[in-house]
Queue: 2 jobs
Job 1
Amino acid sequence: MNTETISIKKLKPNPANPRTIKDDKFHKLVQSVKSFPEMLKLRPIVVNDQYEVLGGNMRLRACIEAGMSEVTIIRASELTEDQQREFIIKDNVGFGDWDMDALANEWDAEELSDWGLHLPGFADISIGTDGFSLPDGDKEPFQQMTFTLADEQATQVKNAISDIKETEEYKYAETMGNENTNGNALYLIIMQWAGQRT
């Protein structure tokens, strides 16, 4: 099976495609197509002989939205009608599971999100000055840190930070010039924990 580059106008979205994509994820897919078009050559849209899409309906939509005039395709001419229907489903089935430890330790959570990977049960927490949002830019000599936590862990961390902010110890804690209240609270929690270990 050889790939071809053809006019995007020749392709027909599959009306029976069972896969959908929500607005925010679709926007990320469009951005991905714009910023990394080489991916489309490595993962061509699969079509039948009538140029109806069997695999890659959402990528086709994203390519149209991105203003592309040509796309790379691969024809599945040898598939029977039944096999084509089977392919449509199997192409969208996610086999296997994500190794959460590897994702958390080896990959950047923000990049994964930008690339369209959403992991239910996980939340990104950034320690900002107001709530848990990112501060505007880095200030020397401070460091900005982002953590990926399971939802239950994130809730416990937020609660612990809120609780310690109500204590007298927090009011008089050394901030080392840091104006980030959540960062100071988290630092105090960690110092208390470290003190209990010694």
Job 2
Amino acid sequence: MKKAWYGVALIVGCMIGWTVVPATGALDEDFAIDEAEATVITSSRLTFDQEQRFALFEEDVLVVDPSLRLTADRLTVVFDENDQAETIEAEGDVVIEQEGTTAWSQKATYEVPSGKIFLEGAPRIRRGRDVLEGDTITFWRDDNRMICEPQARLVLFPDDGEPGSGARGLMFGE
């Protein structure tokens, strides 16, 4: 069963295997890739520090992936000693879209090893007409589990017979 919400909850879980290409799209013939299968990150500025193990994308950040689209003011990827993504943090007017589900927050943090995704700063998730809000929303990527606290608010509209409607569809994309 495909879980549409899974991808949004991952935030940028697929970032682990990202390929970064220039914003212009002008690639040398020997380096040409099929962008339809790649994750493309564009921003006004990219700072990469191998010694400090991080990449920082600033201003007008856009992540386009085959499974989701993310916009933010800033995106930071911290790598472990094996050059694998350890944490991915999007900040400032974060919007994540995937297959009819949209999430908004001021900050989204993905802890790659644990699969934990943390949305804060007026997080809100909408699928169809259904909406989930709270002060923080935390997901565990592999467990189909979530905590929304405090001030949790879930607005559900009557089931219209379409897959993905109702509380379970809002949270897990069924």
